[in-house]
Amino acid sequence: MASEYHRGEMDIHEQASTYHLFVMLTKWGSLVTASLLVFLVLVFCTPTSFIGALAVGVVMSVLGFVVLRDKGGDAH
Length: 76
What we know:
mainly alpha; 2 helices
């Protein structure tokens, strides 16, 4: 039975690019959401001052950036 589909011959460049974009947006969006949530909790639910909460949020963002940045190489 003849078929137009041949396993492994399809160009998946667009699908791979879309998946990579989705992973990047999820990763960085999660970091932003977590940092903002920690900041807001510290400001409104604890006696921490605005400056203290901001400092914790910035430190968390910087540490998250260091951990989540691309290390290079071709990971799967």
